[in-house]
Amino acid sequence: MAETIDNRDPRRHRSWRELWQAPTLAAAVVLLLAGLMAVVVTRPRPDVQGMVAQAEQMIESNRSDDALALLNDRARPLIGEAYVTPQTRQRFHAARARAIADGIGRLGLTGLTNHQSVVDEYGKAEGSGYEMPPIDQRRLIASLIELGELDEAASRIDALPDDTSVARVSLRRSLIEAAAADPAFRTLADEQLLVLDGDPMLSVDDRAWVVARQTERRLDDGLVDEAVARLLRTMPRVTSASDAARGELFLLLGTAYAEVDAVADAAKQLDRASMLIEPNTELYASMRLTRGRVFAQLGELEQAREHFEEVVESYSSSPSFLDATLALAETVARISKIDPSLASSGDAVAAYARVADEARFAAASEAYLGRATRSLLRRVDEYRVRGQLDTAAQYGQIAEDLWGLSSAPPEVLLAQGEIRRATAQELIDDASQIAGRPVDLGDLDPSARLQGQRDFLGAADYFRRHADALAGDDDGDGYADSLWAAATMFDSGGDTGEAIASFIEFASTISDDPRLPEARFRLARAYQSAGQYDLAAEQYESLIEVASDPQRGTGVGPFAVRSYVPLAETYLEDADPANDARAGDLLEAVIRGEAGGIDGEAFSDALSAMGMVRYYRGDFPGAIETLEEAVARGDDDRRALRLKYLLADAYRLEAASITDTLGEGAIAPTVARDLSATRESHLNRAIELFSQVRDGGATIVPARRTTLESVFIRNAHFYLGDCAFDLGRYEPAIRYYGVAKDAYADDAASLVALVQIFNAYLELGDVDRARTASERARRFHESLPESAWDDRTLPMSRQDWERWLDSTYELASMQAADGLE
User: Fold this and answer.
1) Tens of pLDDT along 598-617?
2) Which residues of 402-438 are buried (b: 16+ CB within 10 A; e: fewer)?
3) How many Cα atoms within 13 Å fall on the side-chain side of residue 528?
4) Nearest-CA neighbor of 615 among 564, 589, 587, 651?
5) Residue 437 DSSP code
6) Whole-angstrom distance, CA of residue 438 vs CA of residue 431
7) 99 vs 426: CA distance, rounded Å
8) Share of the chain above pLDDT 70, in %
9) Angle at 504 between CA 500 and CA 505, to 5 degrees
10) How far apart are CA 2 and CA 709, in angstroms?
11) 564 and 590 in contact (C-beta within 8 Å)?
């Protein structure tokens, strides 16, 4: 089959018959575009000018919301177009400002955003050449006043044409009220009042308003006589004014008379005001408040209370409300002092608490907070003088609540510190009166001690804050006093760290205060209490050194003398034995009278300290000598109890030492007789002293005893029996042990008494009672846990255990000899 061949060239030119559609399509596109352009060019532009005109009509018809919607939604997107004329833009911005201002007026809006929009829109209109008619000027001025732009508002008011006199007066009154409310614009307020006073177009009511505002200014400045004179001259000229206008003037005249205590005249003018002023108005609330104050001045407190209560309960939105709340609280407080059946002190506190609550809620001015604070601090002083510290503390807390702790003025912080210091001191004074001797915080029962500690530390915190508030001010004495009080209160409350910090600050920032040596001494004591012995010793040594310097030692001497004993104690308490000799030298110097003489406090302290040192070192003869002298000086009961115990125990232990010496045998008979007599004397003196410790301890409530006192008192009970036993007085010993056993029935120390009772009966040859006592001791011993013997303060030594073992063995031998099982 022959192959078919295609001879057509694909690159050959097409014929016109094949391509005629392309030119036709192109021509159609051109014609379409030309038509569209013609439509666009000939379509009418949006009528922005008409939109603005329509909005202006809506505003005139009190449809400002619709006008604003039209301007915002339709005109505003087009206002920047090139075809929109400058005049249309001016009218747009003015219309928009007018619509917003009209909405503010109808809706009574108080937010500043809308007023700022009014000012901004009028500013744009003026910036593009718009000449504002008086109605727009008035709207702009009203918004400027609301925004606090008072100087500009005043200039625009002055520029208003004469035919707007009524509006001008109204705006100037608003400007004066706004300026009077802001201390920064007081001068402007005074100037505008003078301008308004000279305006010949004032109505009689406006004239009365001007006089009222000028009177308020004079009363604020204390020009009461001048205010009264002006009112008396003016009031005959405003007899045709409205009742409200004349009522306000009578109210101000009554207020002025009340300011100078002309209460009868004040009452007369206020009665006239009450007949002219309509209820349910702010002016009526002010009148009732002022009448209440006059009644309070007259001593008619119940009527005053009724007036204040009416304002408080019925006029909470009035400017007089907060003042009435404070006046009511003050009146209730006065009534509570005169007749508690009509109002209690609790009612008064509650009334003042409401003052604080309402002041915080209303964000009261600092001037009002200051008046309320002064009133509260007067109550604080009244009740503190009476000794009613709980009530004083309530008022002090309300004063703090008025401001909040971080913003409280210095006088509130000071009052709070003084109240808490007095409360803590009262606690200690009461305890001292009950005990019949001075006590300190450590002597109180745990609950009272905790409360006292809280009060001391609370006082310290307030004094610290008060000192900080005064730092850098001219009141250097107040700063020093509060810093000192803070340091001493921290010290008394047991916060050693804060006490140290405060004493350091006092010593480093105050160079000429006579309390400076005491501050350094107390700083040393605080260091010692905190176990910072090196720092304590440094302060003590410095005081002793400076005291010998004629130029630097002024006032240091007494505290240098008082430093000897605690410095010695510091050296004895630290871990360095190398300075113990220095401690001994210090105590010896005091005892020799080289530091303060033999009649000073330091001498007694040194005797006590030296006696304790000798006691704990085992130098019982030396301890007896020193402690006898210390006891003879008649220290306070608590300290004497401790010294008597150590002295009694020194006699007991020295008697035991003599017994050991006598037991060695190689002693001459005359020496042995003397030693025996000394031993007997020591034990008798020990019995006398242990009895005093036991009986004195009974007067101290157990909960108020220190741990060491509790040990001393307990051991004194048992050592009485030991001393009698060692003297061979077995019957008295049994009685002493019986008292001790009954007093400490659950204490492991009772085993001592039971064992010694057994031994005493055995010495007396009363085998039956010895057997019974031995059995009781055995059962009690078995009932005690092994941990009971971990107490190293128990009055039971190794010799006591050996004595029990020996006696038990002896009893068993006696029973065997008698054929007893």
Assistant:
1) 666 778 888 888 888 888 88
2) bbeeeebbbbbbbbbbbbbbbbbbebbeebeeebeee
3) 21
4) 651
5) S
6) 8
7) 70
8) 87
9) 120
10) 142
11) yes
Please check whether residue 148 is in contact with residue 122, taking contact to mean a CB–CB distance below 8 angstroms.
no
- CA gap 734, 758 in Å, rounded: 9
End-to-end CA distance of the chain: 154
Residue 591 pLDDT level (bands cut at 50, 70, 90): confident
Which token pair is 413? 């912080």
Q: Which two tokens stand for residue 546?
A: 């400076």
Q: Rounded distance, CA 84 to CA 300, Å?
A: 75
Q: What angle do CA 579, 584, 588 make, to 5 degrees?
A: 150
497: CB partners within 8 A, 6+ apart: 530
Cβ-contact 96, 114 below 8 angstroms: no
What is the distance between the alpha carbons of residues 127 and 136, in angstroms, rounded to a whole number? Answer: 15
- Distance between CA atoms of residues 18 and 217, nearest Å: 104
Q: How far apart are CA 251 and CA 253, in angstroms?
A: 5
If we measure between CA atoms, which residue out of 568, 565, 561 comes closest to residue 583?
568
Tokens of 484: 């000192």
- Assigned token pair, 55: 């909005």
Residue 123 dihedral angles phi and psi, to the nearest 5°: -65, -40
Measure the CA–CA gap between 81 and 93, rounded to whole angstroms.
15
In this structure, what is the dihedral angle of CA atoms 420, 422, 425, 426, given to the nearest 10 degrees? -110
Q: What span, in angstroms and rounded, lies between the C-alpha atoms of 146 and 396?
A: 39
Beta-carbon contacts of 622 under 8 Å, excluding residues fewer than 6 positions away, are 614
Return the ∠ at Cα 250 (arms to 244 and 251), rounded to 5°: 85
Q: What amino acid occupies position 285? A: A
- Confidence at 704, pLDDT banded by 50, 70, 90: low
Cα 799 to the center of its chain, rounded Å: 59
Q: Of the candidates 495, 490, 576, 578, which has an alpha carbon nearest to the alpha carbon of residue 533?
A: 576
Tokens representing residue 15 in the block: 């014929």
Length of the chain: 821
Specify the residue for token string 């008025």. 402
Would the pTM count as exceeding 0.85?
no
Distance CA 543, CA 787 (A): 48
pLDDT band at 44 (very low <50, low <70, confident <90, very high): low
DSSP per position, 763-819: HHT-HHHHHHHHHHHHHHHHHS-GGGGG-TT-S--HHHHHHHHHHHHHHHHHHHHTT
* The two structure tokens encoding residue 104: 């503010």
Q: How far apart are alpha carbons 446 and 422 in whole angstroms?
A: 20
Lowest mean pLDDT among 233-237, 500-504, 515-519: 233-237
User: How many beta carbons lie within 10 A of that of residue 232, not counting itself?
Assistant: 11
Q: Please say whether the beta carbons of 381 and 440 come within 8 A.
A: no
The structure tokens 């007081």 sit at 186
114 vs 121: CA distance, rounded Å: 11
Alpha helix stretches (DSSP H) within 530-636: 533-547, 557-573, 580-591, 601-617, 620-632
Distance between CA atoms of residues 418 and 402, nearest Å? 19
Residue 444 · residue 452 · CB < 8 Å? yes
pLDDT band at 553 (very low <50, low <70, confident <90, very high): low
**Spatial distance between the Cα atoms of 262 and 269, rounded to a whole number of angstroms:** 11
The answer for residues whose C-beta is within 8 angstroms of residue 25's C-beta and 6 or more apart is none
**Dihedral (CA of 523, 525, 526, 532) sign:** positive
63-100, pLDDT tens digit by residue?
888 988 998 899 888 888 888 888 998 899 999 989 88
Structure tokens at 682: 């020591």
Fill in the DSSP letter of residue 72: I
Enumerate residues 6+ apart whose C-beta is below 8 A from 589.
564, 595
